[in-house]
Amino acid sequence: MQPCSRKPSPWDAHLPLPLLSAHVASSVVFIVAVTSFVVTHDADFVFDDSEALLNNKDVSAEDISISEIFRHDFWGNDIASNLSHKSYRPLTILTFRLNAFLASGLNPRSFHVTNIILHGIVSALFLPIFSILFSSATHNSRAAFLAALLFAVCPVHTESVAGVVGRADLMCSLCFLLSFYFYSVACSQGVSMYSRFSLHLLPSMMFAICSVLFKEQGITVLGLCSAYDVISVSRFDLLGFLRTLLIYSFQLPALRSSSSSSFLLRHLTLLLTGVFILSSRFIVMGSSVPEFQKVDNPHSFVESRFLRALNYTYLYCINAWLLILPHWLCFDWSMGCVPVINSITDPRNTATLVFLSGFTALVWRALSHPPRHHERCLQLSLAMLLIPFLPASNFFFRVGFVIAERVLYLPSAGFTMLLVIGLCWLCSRFNRTVLLFSPICVYALLLLNFGRSVQRSLEWRSERLLFDSGANVCPLNAKVHYNIGKIHSDHGNNDYAIAKYRQAIRLHPEYDQAMNNLANILKDQGELVEAESLLLRATAIRESFSAAWMNLGIVQAALKKTAAAERSYKTALLHRRRYPDCFYNLGNLYLETNQPNEALAAWRNATLLRPKHLSAWGNMILLLDNSGRMPELDIVVEEALKHLPDEPYIHYNYANALGKASRFELSEKHFLLAIQLNPLSASYHANLGVLYHRWGKLRNAETSYRKTLELDPQHKQTKEHLAMLMQKQKSTR
């Protein structure tokens, strides 16, 4: 017996779509889904991709074991730390590592192509899932086909597909659907067929656990399974239940199920799985919950419960609007993009009231009528829409965002079901003449969504396009202007970057990160006083902002405020003990204040924390060379070359030190190694020439000098040395 094997209802017969075989329909859905977002196949890493991949040691570092990934959050930090956002998605990180392994590095194309294919698979898999939810006997009903097509081309999915971090949503959804499918099959098995019952129920729970390990939203599949079991399998009559409560003093009505024991066993399994997932997750998080700042989700910090409820409902309204008319899409909705509602007289409450009225009417229509096929489909559509959205609703706990389009990936399936149900209802009530126009309407809807998905995908091809589109949609979003400033700063357009950083600070006067970045540009331009002022403001706003403290130390050192600079560096290290760049800059300060031993200790700490910190190694070598401490220098260079054996800068500086100590043969060896690694460096050849000159190997010296002038004809010292050499050779003839 297959799940939902009732006779197909003719309710979708008027939909203007062909009735294709399951294989053909799945292929069409897959192709349409892939085509909608294929323009992102060669896109760059954008926005959150940098933190999740490029700066995530769990993805890029070969020395990070798989077991360590299961102790880290999505961004590579210790999941038990109080600073972690507690986003635990180890299986998603493993897919990133597999991508990097197969592509021999962090090649964006490999990651994007994988995401596009995954979206195609999820869309095709929705075809049988929609058939189950629509209570169709086969997996090729017109309603399921149209719903799958609408899901495939939904523009709100762009962030999940075009952004590599959307892999979490795609894989979570894939396991979500497989878990639900196996549960629906298990619902057709009675306890008397326990082996077959377990054969499908246990995989369902395993896929549910995997879904959660891809993204937290996966736990909601347990709720959808329960809703499907109650509404479609057991055909629970909520309206009748409410009447029973009133008439028979809270006596629970009997469920129309082939076996109440199997129903109870299935729900006991769902309950135990949910408890296991939640308790395990709490333990993994170090028995603590994430702590978010007001800037992450200001609506959740409104003190009045009533006003907070108004804010939440307004956010739900915007989420619904993004599904209905996905024109207003933005990569980030924080920092003023959606201003907080602080009064009941705010005109936006009108939109909230309209939304609540419409939604209440829809729920009433689903629950107030006798539970026929249409009502059950409506109830399951609402379940598919609402249950996966619950983790993002702020209902159970505060979330770290205002609106996130990625979290609508699964709920959008419920919306497409509602849309198809509405189209079926309208088509069934049109006369024959009007029905002639229904194909135009349906195909126009698909084409409009397809076109919007392609358009939005083009905006996700690069960060500049993405950030500019965000400024058009959310001009009050300080973070959008900050990101525009950052990308222009990275490309050397500092004047425009400064303007954008200033605009971000005007929109959000406590934007400490924008102050820090603006101060860095001003520091490089010599505007040290304003840079110091900005960094003092940033550290006052966020005392634990270690990067701002370090940059403040750099500025104060440039202003000759050495005592203040040292305090700033030490404050940075107080808040972030493993901070190699700060130790490096502290060492530079000690060198400037004639404290060589303290400088060496600071640089040593930098190299211990980051063994490939070239600048710290280089400074240690130069200081030991200038101090004539050759035994210590030999030890430092030996250790440095263990971590950086192919770094010509280290070979070059060590060769210079050896030459000064008249250790000519070893000096020659390291000069030649440096030149082998960087043959186009004129200074390397020039200093090798000086070594040969002092060594008495005049022909070799002449060759090196001439090679230097070949690379840099204006090298003044080499011209002088060559002239001296030629004069010496003449005098010896």
Polypeptide structure, described:
The protein is an all-alpha fold and 733 residues long. Among the domains are: 294-429, no CATH class; 477-577, Serine Threonine Protein Phosphatase 5, Tetratricopeptide repeat; 646-733, Alpha Horseshoe (Serine Threonine Protein Phosphatase 5, Tetratricopeptide repeat). The protein has helices at residues 22-37, 49-54, 57-60, 66-69, 90-102, 108-133, 142-152, 158-162, 167-186, 194-214, 221-233, 238-247, 260-284, 305-324, 348-368, 373-386, 411-429, 432-435, 438-459, 463-473, 478-490, 494-507, 512-524, 528-541, 546-558, 562-575, 580-592, 596-609, 614-626, 630-643, 648-660, 664-677, 682-695, 698-711, 716-731. The longest helix has 26 residues, at 108-133. The termini are far apart.
Short description:
The protein has 733 residues and is mainly α. The chain has 35 helices and no strands.
SS summary, helix count: 35
What does the main sheet amount to?
none
Rg (CA only)? 33 Å
**What is the straight-line distance between the termini?**
107 Å
Structural class estimated from helices and strands: mainly alpha
Report the count of strand segments. Answer: 0
Gross morphology is elongated
How would you state the average pLDDT, rounded?
Answer: 88
The stretches of 5 or more residues where confidence is low (pLDDT under 50) are 1-9
Strand content bin: under 5%
Helix amount, in percent?
Answer: 55-70%
GO molecular function, one term: dolichyl-phosphate-mannose-protein mannosyltransferase activity
Keywords: Endoplasmic reticulum, Membrane, Repeat, TPR repeat, Transferase, Transmembrane, Transmembrane helix
Membrane topology: Multi-pass membrane protein
Enzyme class: transferase
